[in-house]
């Protein structure tokens, strides 16, 4: 099953400055304004590597990386290790901690059933990440994956190894505290590798990066760079977390509809009444509480917001409806909130087919409830669908079935920070 090992992490040195001003969120949630602000705080922020700009951005990232290595701003650890990583944060008024560890995982094709995806991906992001890794020979951010461990053996081990002060710690602008402990003990690395020999891994966040790792491995094989299993290009950097960790939090990703001003929402409601109990005119102020209530009851529900101070509630009444349109899919897939919305409303009622969704012609996504409302109010989007989150156990079942949810079905919160530790897997000339 999963091959897990330590590695010589690439990390910022004291010469680079305070670690909190060197890290950044994942590249795909950073605006250009935010990018500039990170660089104003410290021009050595990892954003210069993770999200390069210019006429030849990938070459620029490679040049910057090599320069920082020569200047001692970045340095590889002298020993192989794993890196225990904890995030402490507030979500929906409650304080949480989530802890896992960063390591290398052997890249396996999805057909092997060792590393399992749960979500469709978008082509543009994969091309960008491939070009960046090809130019730099480095992975700057981790894939976030889950594993099943009913006895919590690995979690108990990493808890015991992280009782002391962390090797790095900072609190970011969103109030999330990040902590890192470096563990170099060969006996620990061997023990953890043994624990994962019979386990599968379930990608939580980073599908694009994992597919990029497959593409990079295949490219290096074709170029004759990888000639055996020991080459670092056969591995990818991951953060691994117990699937039953009490600190796991999944937020919903809301759907935004654009360039469809001709849609008559009353007609849309009528088309959907065969599958849903539909209640228009509910006060916007109570929307979150109502969706939370239905979520707790296990009902499939979402809200349609069209720009006023009220919303329309959709509650599924025909539990077999998705299966009739998607007979080849499992019951687990057909019972997902996102499957209900995509199949019955987006595809059947609005005519937004899967190719349209993949290319984001009429569909966009946001984790922010405020954005899902404000961008409709200001006319950027025609209307939005406010979703409930996917449950962690649903994600595991979909992956185990060998299926994929619609893209952007999950949002694990908080995102892993970029820059605490990186993986230099190849020197690029």
What number is the mean pLDDT?
Answer: 95
The N- and C-terminal alpha carbons lie at a distance of: 34 Å
Structural class: alpha+beta
In total, how many beta strands?
A: 21
Strand content: 15-25%
Q: Given the C-alpha coordinates, what overall shape results?
A: globular
Give a quick account of the main beta sheet: strands, pairing sense, barrel closure. Answer: 9 strands, mixed
**Helical residue percent band:** 25-40%
Query: Helix count?
Result: 15
Rg, alpha carbons: 22 Å
Question: Unreliable runs, pLDDT <50, ≥5 residues?
Answer: none
Quaternary structure:
single chain
Q: Describe it for me?
A:
This protein is globular. Helices cover 33% and strands 24% of the residues. It is built from 15 helices and 21 strands. Strands 1, 4, 5, 6, 8, 9, 10, 11 and 12 form a nine-stranded mixed beta sheet that branches. A six-stranded antiparallel beta sheet has the order 15-17-16-19-14-18. The protein is an alpha+beta fold and 429 residues long. A hairpin with a 5-residue loop joins strand 9 (168-171) and strand 10.
């Amino acid at each position: 099953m999963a091959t897990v090992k330590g590695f010589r992490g690439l990390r910022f040195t004291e010469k680079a400055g305070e670690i909190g001003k060197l890290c950044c969120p994942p590249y795909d949630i950073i605006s250009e304004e935010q990018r500039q602000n990170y660089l104003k705080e410290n021009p050595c922020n990892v954003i210069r590597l993770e999200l390069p700009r210019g006429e030849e951005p990938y070459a620029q990232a490679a040049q910057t990386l090599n320069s920082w290595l020569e200047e001692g701003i970045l340095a590889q650890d002298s020993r192989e290790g794993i890196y225990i990583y904890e995030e402490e944060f507030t979500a929906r008024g409650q304080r949480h901690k989530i802890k896992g560890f960063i390591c290398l995982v052997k890249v396996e094709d999805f057909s092997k059933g060792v590393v399992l995806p749960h979500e469709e991906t978008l082509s543009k992001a994969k091309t960008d990440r491939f070009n960046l890794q090809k130019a730099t020979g480095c992975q700057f951010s981790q894939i976030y994956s889950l594993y099943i461990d009913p006895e919590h053996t690995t979690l108990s081990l990493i808890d015991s190894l992280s009782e002391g002060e962390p090797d790095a710690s900072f609190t970011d602008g969103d109030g999330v505290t990040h902590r890192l402990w470096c563990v170099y003990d060969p006996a620990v690395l061997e023990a953890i590798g043994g624990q994962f020999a019979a386990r599968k891994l379930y990608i939580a966040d980073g599908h694009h990066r994992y597919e990029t790792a497959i593409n990079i491995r295949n490219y290096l094989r074709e170029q004759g760079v990888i000639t055996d299993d020991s080459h670092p290009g056969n591995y990818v950097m991951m953060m691994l977390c117990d699937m039953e960790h009490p600190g796991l939090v999944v937020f919903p990703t809301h759907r935004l509809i654009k360039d469809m001003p001709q849609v008559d929402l009353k007609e849309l409601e009528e088309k959907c009444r065969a599958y849903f109990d539909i209640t228009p005119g509910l006060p916007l102020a109570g929307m979150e509480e109502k969706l939370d209530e239905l979520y707790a009851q296990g009902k499939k529900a979402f809200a349609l917001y069209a720009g006023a101070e009220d919303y329309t509630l959709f509650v599924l009444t025909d539990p077999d409806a998705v299966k009739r349109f998607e007979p080849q899919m499992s019951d687990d897939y057909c019972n997902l909130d996102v499957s209900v919305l995509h199949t019955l409303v987006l595809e059947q009622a609005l005519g937004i087919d899967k190719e349209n969704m993949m290319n984001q012609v009429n569909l966009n996504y946001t984790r922010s409830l405020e954005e899902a409302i404000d961008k409709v109010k200001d006319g950027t989007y025609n209307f939005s669908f406010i979703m409930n989150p996917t449950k962690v156990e649903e994600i595991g079942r979909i992956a185990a079935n060998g299926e994929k949810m619609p893209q952007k079905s999950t949002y694990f919160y908080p995102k892993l920070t970029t820059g605490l530790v990186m993986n230099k897997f190849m020197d690029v000339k």
